[in-house]
Sequence to fold (370 residues):
Amino acid sequence: MAKKPKRIVVKVGTSTITNKAGAIDREYITNLAEQIAALKAQGMEVLLVSSGAIRAGMEQLGLAERPKTIPEKQAAAAVGQGHLMQIYSQIFAGFGLVTGQVLLTREDFGNRKRYLCARNTMITLFRHGVVPIVNENDTVAIDEIRVGDNDNLAALVAACLRADLLILLSDVSGLYNANPEEVPCAKIIPTVKELGREVRSAAGGAGSTSGTGGMRTKIQAAEIAMNSGIKMVIADGHRENVLADIVLGRPVGTTFIPKEECLKSRKQWIAFGKTPRGTVAVNDGAKRMILERGKSLLAAGITNVTGKFSSGDMVDVLDKDGNHLARGFVNYNAEEIEKIKGKKSSEIELILGHKDFDEVIHRDNLALRP
Fold:
């Protein structure tokens, strides 16, 4: 029998918590609450990442079609978030569970202090026996209301909390080796150990039209989870006793096996938490030093700079072919790096008139991209 996880993040998509009529499915949420209550009775901490705020707002506003403009989506989310939370609160209370709302944006993961504050808040909720219910703050997160935001949000939350297990409950049974709608004989891939080309190809594009997610974004979530040492499972959210079966290690959906050597907490945050503001490309020598010897990035190894960024901003480090090597905080702004690229560290002060650092990105502020 598999070792039971202590801390679990469960994500449900809009298409999973709505019925055929497009309304919030209270019967399904009741079943979900019962399953979560059973896990908590065994001493597990469970956090729920839930989509559906816009859908719930549509229900309250009597809208027949999903809003198309950003302001309309945000208005629907503003109405729907409270309504959705009320539904969760009432239903979960029937099983003796207290819920707490946590609304996050990408900025909460990009700012280290806010990141740690969010983590401490969620852990404190666990300590009080509360089930945190997390959603993207759709009323203010303009560029987050798009395909798959809550798949990635769930993975970022799981990584932030150092969860043992991430479960993505979907309207599909797992990752198939081909699109089952186009290939009737397509089969579920039961286990994924590496996110190679075949796996990414099988993920294809966006899936259901009911929500904003898709299999491609679930693979992105798997990348975060696997490199953070977290097992992830994609499963049919309507399968009977799905959470219990996954926790017991029974073959359900697709399981993504975490890497043995996972990123440490701060490196994990650097790699996945913050949005990069630009890129620096490096030559083969710098690539070897970074990947094989864990060295800092020096100006001499830089061949190209893109984007407008300041000292202290996050950038992606690319090789000469455009492949992502790493991500890190720069010690110089874009204009300065453009001037010193290809130059020795001893030449920086002469070129810029100052030299605050020998390194463009210090190795402590550099995380390798998986």
